[in-house]
């Protein structure tokens, strides 16, 4: 599942590509010269991360059918109307477009390039209910500040996933879950929850240890803890100083080390077996945990195995 990339200089072709990737919409071109349209999209199934720039000033009428769209300008200006408000976003801010609601973009400036996250609204709602106990329709803020706090961390995750692309469909759902869960942790009301403790954390750790190869979602883990995703994160931070996903990554790195020491498979094969789709990131995480690169471990394993 490789990123989809296009660059075109024809308005009709640009409009068609944007509709195929995102939503049906009406495009109004506000400048006469040819566009320099660029689009790069990473499709994780229920979540799509895309970078798009029109290279010309446009306005867009769209109802965002079946999806919530979060658009963050990397440059330029994005002006739109939503919830009876006139709003504008620049770099460091994100516009949140609710599903199935007319929210016209009144100005997408010529120099505006957007990195956006498109969530399937059913997926988003299911994750909110399963992991956070949400009831009723999701009420999301219309605009986000991505420059500080948890949203800044979420934004770094989004940017890194888009930059890396995805080549292994086997991990697409887990990546989509990571993007969705961290987003919901940022935007849903923090309703303080008690309950859980050392036993809850240990149940999750035991379950992860029994099947680290499983495509775990945050909701799956929280079910073993018997608490919400938010509460599970709090308990892990208090007891272990780590997130559940960090614990899972450490377990997978331990298993990868065992496989490398056998000397039967290449570093790339071992990394892929344990869900690491980016060799560079795998090598960095491995070195951080064990103090040596995985290639050195693999060579030692091959020598000892002779």
TrEMBL record:
Domain HTH araC/xylS-type residues, every copy: 202-300
Family annotation (InterPro entries): AraC-bd_2, AraC_XylS_family_regulators, Homeodomain-like_sf, HTH_AraC, HTH_AraC-typ_CS
Any one Pfam family match given in the protein's UniProt record, by short name: AraC_binding_2
Keywords: DNA-binding, Transcription, Transcription regulation
GO molecular function: DNA-binding transcription factor activity; sequence-specific DNA binding
Protein name per its UniProtKB record: AraC family transcriptional regulator
């Amino acid at each position: 599942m490789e990123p989809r990339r296009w660059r075109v200089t024809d308005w009709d072709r640009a409009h068609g590509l944007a509709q195929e990737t995102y939503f049906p919409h009406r495009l109004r071109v506000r400048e006469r010269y040819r566009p320099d349209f660029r689009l790069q999209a990473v499709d994780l199934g229920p979540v799509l991360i895309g970078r798009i720039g029109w290279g010309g000033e446009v306005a867009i009428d769209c109802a965002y059918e079946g999806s919530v769209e979060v658009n963050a300008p990397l440059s330029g200006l994005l002006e739109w109307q939503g919830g009876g408000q006139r709003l504008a976003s620049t770099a460091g801010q994100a516009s949140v477009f609710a599903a199935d609601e007319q929210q016209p973009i009144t100005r997408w400036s010529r120099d505006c390039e957007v990195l956006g996250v498109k969530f399937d609204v059913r997926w988003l709602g299911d994750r909110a209910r399963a992991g956070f106990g949400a009831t009723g329709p999701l009420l999301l803020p219309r605009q986000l500040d991505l420059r500080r706090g948890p949203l800044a961390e979420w934004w770094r995750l989004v940017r890194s996933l888009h930059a890396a692309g995805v080549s292994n469909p086997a991990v697409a759902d887990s990546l989509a879950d990571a993007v969705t869960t961290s987003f919901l942790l940022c935007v849903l009301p923090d309703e303080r929850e008690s309950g859980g403790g050392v036993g809850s954390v240990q149940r999750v750790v035991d379950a992860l240890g029994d099947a680290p190869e499983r495509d775990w979602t945050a909701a799956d883990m929280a079910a073993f803890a018997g608490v919400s995703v938010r509460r599970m994160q709090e308990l892990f931070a208090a007891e272990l100083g780590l997130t559940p996903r960090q614990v899972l990554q450490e377990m997978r790195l331990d298993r990868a080390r065992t496989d490398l020491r056998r000397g039967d498979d290449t570093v790339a094969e071992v990394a892929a077996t344990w869900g690491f789709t980016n060799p560079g990131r795998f090598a960095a995480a491995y070195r951080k945990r064990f103090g040596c690169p995985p290639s050195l471990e693999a060579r030692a394993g091959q020598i000892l195995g002779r």
